[in-house]
Amino acid sequence: MPLGSAELTNARKDEIISACASLYETMSFKDITIKEIGGLTTFKRASIYNYFQTKEEIFLALLQREYELWADELNSITDKHERMTADEIAHELAHSLETRQRMLKLFSMNHFDMEANSRLENLTEFKAAYGKSINAVDRCLEKFCPDMSKKDRQDFIYAFFPFIYGIYPYTIVSEKQRQAMEAANINYVYLSIYEIAYSCAKKLLGVQE
């Protein structure tokens, strides 16, 4: 554990996570190294190991941050509305995901390896953030869909969350991938993050077209 105040520890962790996020905008997970992450921080690269022991722990912390931001946004949506229809809920859920492209990109990674290469304390903090996002969705459904039972809300969550983990590769494609689809004669309809999430949420909420 690094010496210093909790404020300094948190500030340095945030700086490391932000450096990782910056690199992830243009680089893949496999190409990002702790050395490169350290090059974007204001302190020595070796100091990173006082806060994170592996690259996977840094990425897990980045995803934790994304979960927390998403949960805060969902709770804000729930708090500012007195009532919403099922269609409006689907719209708000889809819009919240539309603005979280980095989170969706992280979802498409191999979580098993990321979690396996992280210490229990880091994994526990991450799972708490994950749980916060689930609770935020459940709170929204409980408030605006009073006819849904606890089991109904659980069924929605257990369908919607696995679905959103696959949104990124279905909506964000490179030119090379697009060319390969055309060469393979696959008549694929490209939808936006909003469109695919909105369609799924509507179906799960029973919204009639």
Concise overview:
By secondary structure, the chain is mainly alpha-helical. It is built from 11 helices and no strands. The mean pLDDT is 95.
Structure description:
The model has no long low-confidence stretch (mean pLDDT 95). The chain has eleven helices and no strands. 69% of the residues lie in helices and 0% in strands. The protein has helices spanning 6-24, 34-39, 55-80, 86-98, 101-107, 111-116, 120-144, 150-164, 167-171, 175-183, 193-205. The protein has two domains: 1-52, Arc Repressor Mutant, subunit A; 56-205, Tetracycline Repressor, domain 2 (Orthogonal Bundle), CATH 1.10.357. The chain has 209 residues and is an all-alpha fold. The radius of gyration is 19 Å and the shape is globular. Helix 3 packs antiparallel against helix 4, helix 7 crosses helix 8 and helix 8 packs antiparallel against helix 11 (193-205). The N and C termini lie far apart (55 Å).
CATH class of the largest domain: Mainly Alpha
Give start-end ranges of low-pLDDT stretches. none
CATH-derived topology of the largest domain: Tetracycline Repressor, domain 2
Query: Helix content range of the residues, please?
Result: 55-70%
- The number of helices is 11
CATH superfamily of the largest domain: Tetracycline Repressor, domain 2
Shape: globular
Report the sheet with the most strands, covering strand number, pairing sense and barrel closure.
Answer: none
Would you tell me the structural class of the helices and strands?
mainly alpha
Number of extended strands:
0
Q: What CATH architecture of the largest domain would you give?
A: Orthogonal Bundle
Strand content: under 5%
Give the N-terminus to C-terminus distance in angstroms.
55 Å
Helices and strands, in order, run as: HHHHHHHHHHH
Cα gyration radius (Å):
19 Å
Number of domains: 2
Average pLDDT works out at: 95
